[in-house]
């Protein structure tokens, strides 16, 4: 009789372990990793207007990924993800007709698993309108006050498209 009870307990314990194992396997999601190669193109767009009149060097600017970046049929970087850029140079328009300009270096983009992937080969450069010749001619011929005429500030409109590339080969976990 003791042997029959111990066998019954033993069978119940094994059955319990099997049920727990099966349940834990069915609810565990394994993320599949895909390799995103260096040089993969990423299309970006500005999220808001950027003006040389209001921006300063060192400032961080947000961009949005325009299209999904896929490896095979898996999305590694989703459209709408945020990319970061940093203002390298910016100058307001000046007197004597000098135009303003802004240069932004694209730095990183968020993958679907939350990694910040570094970007390369993507600078945005924009210049305003140069009115230097007009300012000098009018200043000499008409009135010296025309020498204080400013050029136009540079503006990068919201929705401006630019392309960048992934800097290093990375593994991205996709579901």
Blueprint (SSEs and pairs):
Layout: H1 2-27, E1 32-36, E2 41-46, E3 50-51, E4 60-65, E5 69-71, E6 74-77, E7 82-91, E8 101-110, E9 116-120, E10 123-127, H2 132-141, E11 155-156, E12 161-166, E13 170-174
Antiparallel strand pairs: 1-13, 2-4, 2-12, 3-11, 4-7, 5-6, 7-8, 8-9, 8-10, 9-12
Compact overview of the structure:
The chain has two helices and 13 strands; from the N terminus they run H-E-E-E-E-E-E-E-E-E-E-H-E-E-E.
How does this model look, in words?
The chain is 21% helix and 39% strand. The model has no long low-confidence stretch (mean pLDDT 81). With 175 residues, the protein is of the alpha+beta class. The strands form 4 sheets. A 6-stranded antiparallel beta barrel has the order 2-4-7-8-9-12. The chain is built from 2 helices and 13 strands, in the order αββββββββββαβββ. The chain is rod-shaped and about 115 Å long.
Largest sheet, order of strands side by side?
2-4-7-8-9-12
Report the average pLDDT across residues: 81
Radius of gyration: 29 Å
Work out the helix count: 2
Record keyword descriptors for this entry.
single chain, 175 residues, alpha+beta, 6-stranded antiparallel barrel, two-stranded antiparallel sheet, 2 helices, 13 strands, 39% strand
